[in-house]
Amino acid sequence: MIGITGYLSCCYRVWCISRQLWWGHRIPAYQVSFRNGHPENQKADSHTMWVSGRCYQEALEKAAAQLNVSEEHLELTQDDDVLDTWFSSALFPFAVHGWPSQTDDLDRFYPSTLLETGHDIIFFWVARMVMMGQKLTGRLPFKEVYLHSMVRDAHGRKMSKSLGNVIDPVDVIQGASLEDPSNGPKGLLVPLNQWNPSGQWDLRVLTC
Question: Is the pTM of this model over 0.70?
Answer without folding.
Answer: no
